[in-house]
Write a structure and sequence with these properties.
The structure is a homodimer. By secondary structure, chain A is mainly alpha-helical. The first copy, chain A, folds into two domains: 52 residues, Orthogonal Bundle (Arc Repressor Mutant, subunit A); 140 residues, Orthogonal Bundle (Tetracycline Repressor, domain 2). Chain A has ten helices and no strands. The first copy, chain A, is elongated. The interface between A and B is large, with 42 and 43 residues. The structure holds a DNA duplex. Chains A, B: This is TetR family transcriptional regulator. Chains A, B: It comes from Paenibacillus agilis. Chains A, B: Keywords: DNA-binding, Transcription, Transcription regulation. Chains A, B: One of its GO terms (molecular function) is DNA binding.
DNA sequence: CATTTATTAGAACGATCGGTCAGTATAATT
DNA sequence: AATTATACTGACCGATCGTTCTAATAAATG
């Protein structure tokens, strides 16, 4: 078998991407081999390299998709929130359910890779911070509308980002989704209480 | 050259350990090769494997040293602190200066390693959480002494640990040590303000 | 001084890595 | 129908991985 229709080819590409994403999430970037991706996707080595010119590029492709999706979902949630406070809870909820997003871990690990193309590294580092501007916006809005006390918005944004990022990285081995959500909500509770006007 | 005195042999071991530690911190576990460690330490392959039976064991050795050192320094700082509040600032200060400690990142990455000995993985995962009990103690003390409001201490400890861990993982590319410290202090400010009795 | 033993060096190992390539089959185009 | 472009296969590549092994050297031991 060879030469599928354009549509089928796209399916192949997505099958590879899906398998790769799952493996990168489970094992990280370096621990995942192209051979594993081949096996898991059911496609051949050649097919993978036909659709993606390298492991790095495949990883970047996934990160970009992920980022777009994340931002879209987040802005969708924002439409339902009327106050900055509500928006922060929305972001936290988003992070808590972000078992689909932990590519962030893999991307942080990636930076250390030896032979990696510096250009790709830079892009990935930059990309890993994509939620920051969104958070900054909300905090600036909250301060402007007197929901939050006057303070350095950049610092607060970085802090909240670290909180949520940190929560996402913790090993929640024995915790249920409920408990995880609960801790994320608690994080926002404490954070809000700490910065309230 | 061969066969040094016991003292010199220990120096060799520590030179290897020091080189390995720096590389693990800079590049992560998997991205660091034994060949790099050999080159950086100036020792031979044989010497490395004479002192450490495997890469995994070398890594574990570093983690254990690191943990002991961390806990010692932290309890030393605690002696200077009279209130739970002060102790929290001490912990934050400790995390902020923990450019020597980010083995935590490497250990989190390690868990994903493929062929890794499950026993070693378990030990490492467990070890990566070592600051938690310390934090929990301080928070329980703070609640008991009415410094902090009544609340679930476990949840708060996990939250603070996530905050500090998250701050430690953020890419502070363009930030000075001053700014990093400042953000860590801010983290405690907000956290304390959020849980204050 | 002779022997043993601890410590180092470095060549070599099999396994696996990311990546390439010649070849094939079929859809699309002419 | 003939040709071209696309989608895919799987064997293969050199490099590098963690690890092992043999030999050499010198401290320790008697």
């Amino acid at each position: 078998m060879a030469r599928r229709t354009a549509e089928e080819a796209e399916q192949t590409k997505q099958a590879i991407a899906a398998a790769a994403k799952q493996l990168f999430i489970q094992q990280g970037y370096q621990a995942t081999s192209m051979e594993q991706i081949r096996e898991s996707s059911g496609m051949s080595k050649g097919s993978i390299y036909y659709h993606f010119k390298s492991k790095e590029q495949l990883f970047m492709y996934l990160l970009e998709l992920n980022m777009v999706d994340w931002i879209y979902k987040c802005t969708e949630r924002f439409k339902l929130a009327s106050t900055a406070t509500e928006k922060l809870y929305a972001i936290a909820h988003h992070f808590a359910h972000d078992f689909e997003n932990p590519l962030m871990q893999a991307s942080m690990e990636f930076s250390g890779t030896k032979g990696a193309d510096p250009e790709v590294i830079e892009k990935i580092v930059e990309m890993s911070k994509f939620p920051l501007p969104l958070i900054l916006d909300v905090i600036q809005e909250g301060i402007k509308l007197k929901e939050f006390a006057e303070d350095d918005p950049e610092k607060l944004a970085l802090l909240l980002y670290s909180i949520l990022g940190g929560l996402g990285i913790i090993q929640f081995d024995n915790y249920s989704l409920e408990e995880i959500e609960s801790i994320h909500r608690k994080a926002i509770d404490v954070f809000l209480n700490g910065i309230r006007a």
